[in-house]
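quick q for whoever's on today - can somebody do inverse folding on this one?? i tried earlier but teh output was garbage lol. tokens:
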């Protein structure tokens, strides 16, 4: 099948385009490097964020994650610290030299989030929010596009196409689980979608086993499976005290468990002829 038969053009591998590569924190997504992004679900406080940032940086993470604007299923749950959260992320970035990935939820906040973030995250719930995709398509920052929990692989790639058609080619895909009949895990991690997206597109593909599984003890095995299946990186939730987390504590790794997870990721990376590069501090 040629690219002309596919609804997506810019994202398609069959145009003969080389793999998209996105340098980040001393590693290059899409180059074969294994990139590790980690941090809390939400920025809760200065101390909580700095503890997590210190822990993930000590264990070799390349990117610090943390939500300042949180899409919560309940309006009564913690909604994030907003711009104060972005300021704390900036402080953690300066303290530990880690680039920041954080979610942008609305077209109207793309400007402000872009002032702080190194990578913009479009969450699963917004995978098909076309005004938001259009807005991040105009920004000169990499975008991580999470797969909607009800999106087919084609719908997910078409969402990436929306961003790219606005001129922003620095797009990475993120598989974070889809809804199935199974309720034992939060979602069902679709690892076949990772290998498929790598085949159909030239974009880097990241796996988020935390939101896929919803259980901290499934995160390490699914990280290993993801790397073996060809994922370019993983996005993992880490909290110094998961029991006290305001959001997603049950799927968050402790700092020690994260260290153990990175050690295991290094072994699998070596086994499949890849490496986890040393992280390099970003300029303040
Ligand atoms: C998140 O990464 O914080 C998040 C809300 O994930 P998702 O959009 O995959 O649910
Ligand atoms: Mn979360």
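ok took a stab at it. sequence:
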């Amino acid at each position: 099948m040629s690219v002309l038969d596919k609804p997506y053009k810019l994202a398609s591998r069959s145009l003969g385009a080389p793999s998209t590569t996105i340098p980040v924190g001393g590693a290059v997504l899409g180059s074969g490097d294994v990139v590790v992004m980690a941090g809390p679900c939400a920025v809760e406080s200065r101390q909580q964020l700095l503890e997590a940032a210190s822990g993930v940086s000590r264990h070799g993470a390349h990117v610090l994650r943390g939500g300042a604007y949180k899409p919560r299923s309940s309006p009564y749950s913690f909604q994030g610290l907003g711009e104060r959260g972005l300021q704390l992320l900036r402080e953690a970035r300066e303290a530990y030299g880690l680039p920041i990935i954080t979610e942008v939820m609305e077209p109207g906040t793309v400007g402000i989030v872009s002032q702080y973030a190194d990578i913009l995250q479009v969450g699963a719930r917004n995978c098909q929010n076309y005004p938001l995709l259009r807005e991040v398509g105009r920004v000169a920052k990499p975008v991580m596009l999470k797969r909607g929990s009800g999106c087919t692989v084609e719908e997910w790639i078409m969402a990436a196409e929306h961003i790219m058609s606005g001129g922003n080619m620095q797009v990475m895909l993120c598989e974070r689980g889809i809804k199935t009949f199974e309720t034992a895990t939060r979602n069902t991690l679709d690892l076949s979608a990772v290998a498929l997206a790598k085949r159909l597109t030239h974009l880097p593909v990241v796996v988020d086993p935390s939101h896929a599984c919803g259980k901290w003890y499934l995160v390490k095995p699914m990280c290993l499976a993801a790397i073996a299946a060809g994922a370019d990186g993983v996005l993992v939730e880490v909290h110094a005290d998961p029991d006290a987390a305001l959001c997603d504590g049950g799927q968050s790794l402790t700092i020690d468990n994260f260290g153990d997870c990175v050690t295991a990721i290094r072994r699998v990376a070596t086994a499949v002829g890849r490496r986890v590069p040393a992280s390099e501090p970003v300029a303040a």
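fwiw Residues 41, 67, 71, 103, 123-125, 146, 176, 208, 211 surround phosphoenolpyruvate (ligand 1) (CB under 6 Å). also The chain has a mean pLDDT of 97. so keep that in mind when u check it
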